[in-house]
Automatic annotation (TrEMBL):
UniProt subcellular location: Mitochondrion inner membrane
Tr-type G domain sequence ranges: 48-231
Membrane topology (UniProt): Peripheral membrane protein
Keyword vocabulary terms for this entry: GTP-binding, Hydrolase, Membrane, Mitochondrion, Mitochondrion inner membrane, Nucleotide-binding, Protein biosynthesis
Highest taxon listed in the record's lineage: Eukaryota
Protein name: GTP-binding protein lepa
InterPro entries listed in its UniProt record: EF-4, EFG_III/V, EFG_V-like, EFTu-like_2, G_TR_CS, LepA_C_sf, LepA_CTD, LepA_IV
Signal peptide: none
C-alpha cells in the first residue's frame, strides 16, 4: 500500500498528465529542471531589434565553442571555468562523447547595443556532411550566417558547401577566422584563401579565438550592424514557419517556429498549411537556451510552440502555420531529407521487438530525417529497415538508441537505394538486398542503376597521387583537380588542391572516408552531394550456410569487386560461426555461381569414450553410427548463427 500522501501526489500527476499539463520541463538533455519564467516582455522587441543568425562551418572549426562564448558574453549562461569547454548546446550524450553536433540547436539571447536591447536568435548547426539537411533548415530561419574557418586548417570541403547554401538563401555572411591562439594559425594566409575562394574582402574578416574569447565581442557588434533585421508586421495575418521539432514525453511534439508575420499567442487556434489539421496552442515561448514560456511571439521572433501534436509526422518541417479561418499562402518549404543509406535494425533478443519499435518511433520524433519500414528476416526475426542520411548518421542513431532507450540491437550492413529498370522501362527502387532480383539471368532483361555523388576533396598537393589512386579503386569517374589557394602557397611551399569526381554512393558508405583520412595523415577534407543515378554492373551476393541462404547477410556487389568481397566475407563467417556436429560449407554465391567457399569442420564427439577393453567391432559400429547421424544432420541440419556471430560479422572492425 502506498502512503496516503504519495497516493494523493500520484493522483495529482495523473490529472496533470490527462490535461497534458507540463508538470516538469525537460530539456532535450533529459535533465529535469523547473520551468523558468520570463523576466522580459517580448512586445519590447520589434523586428528592428531582432537578428536571426546561424553559425556554419566545416566540422570541428569551433561552432559550438563560439556559441558557448556568445551565450556567456550575453549572460544567457554562466561563464565556464577557465580552460573548460561546456559545449552548452551539444545536449545529447552522443554529441558530448564524440565532440560533434548532430542536432541544430536554437538559443535566444539579449544584447545591449548603442543603448538599445536587442534579441539575438542563434542557431548552432552540425558540421558533418551527413547533417547538411539540419544546416539548410537552420538557415531557413535566419537572415545571416557566421562562417567560421579554422585559422590553422583553412577553408575545407564543408566550408565551401555551407558557404554556397548560405549564399543561395541570400543570407548576409560574416566571415570569421577562429583559433588564432593556435601556434599553427596563419591568419594572413587563410584570409587570402577566403578571399580567393569566396570573394570575401579580408578587411571584413573577424579574427577570434572562441576558446579564449579573444575577439568574440566584435562578433556581437557585427551581428547587429551587418545582419539585416527580419521583416514582418503585427497587422498582417499570422504566418509561422516551422523549421524544426523536438519531442517532450509529456507535451508531445514541440515545434520550433519563426514568426514571419502576425502574433502567435497561447490559446490561439492554429492550422497547418501542409496537413490542414487544427490545433490549440498550449504553450509558446523562447529557447533561452532552455524553454521559457512567454505566452506570445511577435513577428521576426524565433521560439517554440506546443499544441498537442502527438506524432512527429504532424510537425512537417518547412510547413507554414496560420490562424484558423485566416489562411495564408504557404512559404516555400525546402527539399525533404533524402535517405542515402539503409540498414536493417533487429533486437538481439527477438522478444524485444515491440519495445525496440516503440524506441525507434520515439527517437525519430527528435530526428526527423530517419525513414522507417517494418522488416522481417528469417535469421534475425522481426525488425525495422531504417533510412539514414549517411553512415555517421546511422552510427549516431544506433548509439542514441543504446544510450537513451537502452536498446540492444543488431544492425545489418548499410546499403544504398538501387534502381531496377525492366524491359518496358518501369523503375523499381530497392533498398533491401533481399529484394534485389537476379540480374545475372540475361533473359530477365533488367538493368541496374546505382546512386552516384559529386565528391570534392581538399588536401595538400603532396597527397594528390594517393587520393587519385583511392578514388579510382572506388570506381570514381571524371576526376578533375585545381589549385585552391590561387598562388598563395603556404610558407613551406606546399599548396592545397581541390579534387572533384563522380563516385558511387555505395563506395562512400563503406570505408572510403576512413581510408582517405589514413592515406592523407588526416589532412584531407571531404564533402559530397547527390549526382543522380548511373547504370552499373551490380548483382546480389548471397551467403549459404550448409546450402541455405542467410537473408540478413545478402549484399549488392560490383562485378569488379565480387571475388574480393566474397572471399573476405566467407573468411569472416568461418571465423565467427561456432562449429556444429556436422561439417558446414560456407559459400558466397552470385546468381548460380559460387564465388568463394570455406568449410567449417565438424565437432567430433568421442562416442567411444564409454567403451572399455578391446571391443574393436563395437567401437567401429559406434563410429559408423556417428558418421550416418552426421550425414543425416547435415541434410536437414539448421546451422545456428547466434546473434553474437551477427554482431561480429557486421561490426566494422572485421
Ligand atoms: N585552440 C583553440 N581550440 C578551439 C577553438 N575553438 C574551438 N576549439 C577546439 O576545437 C574543437 C572543436 O570545437 P567545436 O566547437 O566542437 O567544433 P564544432 O565546429 O562545433 O564541431 P561540429 O559540431 O562537430 O562540427 C574542440 O576541441 C574545441 O575545444 C579556439 O579558438 N582555439
Amino acid at each position: 500500500m502506498l502512503a496516503p500522501r504519495r497516493q494523493w501526489f500520484r493522483a495529482c500527476l495523473r490529472v496533470l498528465d490527462r490535461q497534458n499539463h507540463p508538470r516538469r520541463s525537460f530539456g532535450t538533455s533529459g535533465i529535469c529542471c523547473a520551468p523558468k519564467t520570463a523576466d522580459f516582455k517580448l512586445e519590447d522587441y520589434p523586428c528592428d531589434v531582432i537578428r536571426n543568425f546561424s553559425i556554419i562551418a566545416h566540422i570541428d572549426h569551433g561552432k559550438s565553442t563560439l556559441a558557448d562564448r556568445l551565450l556567456e558574453l550575453t549572460g544567457t549562461i554562466p561563464t565556464a571555468e577557465k580552460g573548460k569547454n561546456a559545449q552548452f548546446l551539444d545536449k545529447l550524450k552522443v554529441e558530448r562523447e564524440r565532440g560533434i553536433t548532430v542536432k541544430a540547436q536554437t538559443a535566444s539571447m539579449f544584447y545591449d547595443y548603442n543603448g538599445k536591447r536587442h534579441l539575438l536568435n542563434l542557431i548552432d548547426t552540425p558540421g558533418h556532411v551527413d547533417f547538411a539537411w539540419e544546416v539548410s533548415r537552420s538557415m531557413a530561419a535566419s537572415q545571416g550566417a557566421l562562417l567560421l574557418v579554422d585559422a590553422s586548417q583553412g577553408v575545407q570541403a564543408q566550408s565551401i558547401s555551407v558557404f554556397h547554401i548560405a549564399k543561395e538563401r541570400g543570407l548576409k555572411i560574416i566571415p570569421i577566422l577562429n583559433k588564432i591562439d593556435l601556434p599553427a594559425a596563419q591568419p594572413e594566409l587563410m584570409a587570402a584563401q577566403m578571399e580567393s575562394t569566396f570573394g570575401i574582402d579580408p578587411a571584413d574578416i573577424i579574427r577570434i579565438s572562441a576558446k579564449t574569447g579573444m575577439g568574440v565581442p566584435e562578433i556581437l557588434r557585427a551581428v547587429v550592424e551587418r545582419i539585416p533585421p527580419p521583416t514582418g508586421s503585427t497587422e498582417e495575418p499570422l504566418k509561422a514557419f516551422l523549421f524544426d521539432s523536438l519531442y517532450d514525453r509529456y507535451r508531445g511534439v514541440i515545434s520550433l517556429v519563426n514568426v514571419q508575420s502576425g502574433i502567435l499567442r497561447k490559446g490561439d487556434k492554429i492550422q497547418s498549411c501542409h496537413t490542414r489539421k487544427r490545433y490549440e496552442v498550449t504553450e509558446v515561448g523562447l529557447m533561452h537556451p532552455e524553454e521559457i514560456p512567454t505566452q506570445i511571439l511577435y513577428p521576426g521572433q524565433v521560439g517554440y510552440v506546443a499544441c498537442n501534436m502527438k506524432v512527429s509526422a504532424e510537425a512537417h518541417i518547412g510547413d507554414t502555420l496560420h490562424r484558423v479561418g485566416a489562411p495564408v499562402d504557404s512559404m516555400p518549404g525546402f527539399k525533404a531529407a533524402k535517405a542515402m543509406v539503409f540498414a536493417g535494425v533487429f533486437p538481439v533478443d527477438t522478444r524485444d521487438f515491440p519495445k525496440l519499435e516503440e524506441s525507434i518511433k520515439r527517437l525519430t520524433l527528435t530526428d526527423r530525417s530517419v525513414t522507417i519500414q517494418r522488416e522481417s528476416s528469417s535469421a534475425l526475426g522481426q525488425g525495422a529497415r531504417l533510412g539514414f542520411l549517411g553512415t555517421l548518421h546511422m552510427d549516431v542513431f544506433r548509439q542514441r538508441l543504446e544510450d537513451e532507450y537502452d536498446a540492444n540491437i543488431i544492425i545489418t550492413a548499410p546499403t544504398v537505394p538501387y534502381k531496377i529498370i525492366d524491359r518496358k522501362g518501369v523503375e523499381t527502387m530497392i533498398s533491401n538486398p533481399t529484394q534485389f532480383p537476379d540480374v545475372t539471368d540475361s533473359g530477365a532483361g533488367l538493368t541496374v542503376q546505382e546512386p552516384v555523388v559529386h565528391a570534392s576533396i581538399i588536401a595538400p598537393e603532396d597527397y594528390f597521387g594517393e587520393i587519385s589512386e583511392l578514388c579510382y579503386e572506388h570506381r570514381a569517374d571524371d576526376l578533375e583537380h585545381k589549385y585552391l589557394d590561387a598562388g598563395s602557397a603556404a610558407p613551406d611551399g606546399s599548396a592545397r588542391m581541390m579534387i572533384t569526381c563522380v563516385i558511387p554512393l555505395s563506395e562512400i558508405v563503406t570505408d572510403f572516408f576512413d581510408q582517405l583520412k589514413s592515406r592523407t595523415s588526416g589532412y584531407a577534407s571531404f564533402d559530397y552531394e547527390d549526382a543522380g543515378y548511373r547504370s552499373s554492373n551490380l548483382s546480389k551476393m548471397v551467403f549459404l550456410l550448409n546450402g541455405k541462404p542467410v537473408d540478413a547477410l545478402a549484399l549488392i556487389v560490383h562485378e569488379s569487386q565480387k571475388d574480393k568481397i566474397g572471399r573476405a566475407w566467407v573468411k569472416k563467417l568461418h571465423k565467427v560461426i561456432p562449429r556444429h556436429l556436422f561439417e558446414v560449407p560456407i559459400q558466397a554465391v552470385v546468381g548460380r555461381k559460387v564465388i568463394a567457399r570455406e568449410t567449417l569442420s565438424a565437432m567430433r564427439a568421442d562416442v567411444t569414450a564409454g567403451l572399455y577393453g578391446g571391443h574393436y567391432e563395437r567401437k567401429m559400429k559406434h563410429l559408423d553410427n556417428q558418421k550416418e547421424g552426421k550425414k543425416r544432420m547435415k541434410r536437414v541440419g539448421q546451422v545456428d548463427l547466434p546473434q553474437e556471430a551477427f554482431f561480429d560479422i557486421l561490426s566494422k572492425k572485421n
